[in-house]
Amino acid sequence: MTPVNDPPKELHKAIELTARTLRSTKPDANGTVKVSGKGVCRVEVSASSVDRIVSILDALARALESKRLLIVTSESGVTVPLGKESLSFWIKEKTRQRKHEPTVAELEEEAQRERKLQKYWAGQSRQSDANSLFGRAYPEFARHFRGLVESPKIS
């Protein structure tokens, strides 16, 4: 098997839209880039894995095409019809959830939030955005991307 490096300059036409969509989508609060939709492979990966995933999808599309398999873009994404079944293109990077270890800055921010909350409850503060006082200053758990991906499956 050939190692997957940088994406080729000219991508397979079946994954061009997926590549553009991945590269233009901003990651969520956990650093995850999620895309799906008409003509787009369903992908859920870390922002740092986008180019690697584009390379994998391109290599997969080219390998399937070299076996004379038809690659179809549809309302639900990108598929390869296989008789009564179809191979759906989707990739999800595996993650591990661990208890978040707060930084010194996060602990200080949390202590400040708690002091403001105490003043709010004591009626000593008229915080205009009281909702900001009720959430912890840092997440309880952190999501770590493992760099491993799940591959397409037959559906």
Report on this structure.
- The protein has about 160 residues and is α+β, with helices and mostly antiparallel strands.
- The protein folds into two domains: about 15-95 and about 145-155, no CATH class; about 100-135.
- About 30% of the residues lie in helices and about 30% in strands.
- The protein contains three helices and eight strands.
- Strands 1-2-6-7 form a four-stranded mixed beta sheet.
- β3 and β4 (about 75-80) form a beta hairpin.
- The longest helix has 18 residues, at about 105-120.
- It is elongated, with a radius of gyration of 22 Å.
- It starts with 15 loop residues before the first helix and ends with a strand.
- The model has no long low-confidence stretch (mean pLDDT about 85).
Number of domains: 2
Low-pLDDT runs: none
Largest sheet report: 4 strands, mixed
Rg of Cα set: 22 Å
Query: Average pLDDT value?
Result: 83
Helical percentage:
25-40%
Tell me the strand percentage band.
25-35%
SSE sequence, one letter per element: HEEHEEEEHEE
Shape: elongated
Distance between the termini: 25 Å
Defining traits:
155 residues; alpha+beta; 2 domains; 4-stranded mixed beta sheet; 4-stranded antiparallel beta sheet; 8 strands; elongated
Ordered list of secondary-structure elements with their pairings:
Layout: H1 16-24, E1 32-37, E2 40-46, H2 50-66, E3 72-74, E4 77-82, E5 85-88, E6 90-99, H3 104-121, E7 141-150, E8 153-154
Parallel strand pairs: 2-6
Antiparallel strand pairs: 1-2, 3-4, 4-5, 5-8, 6-7
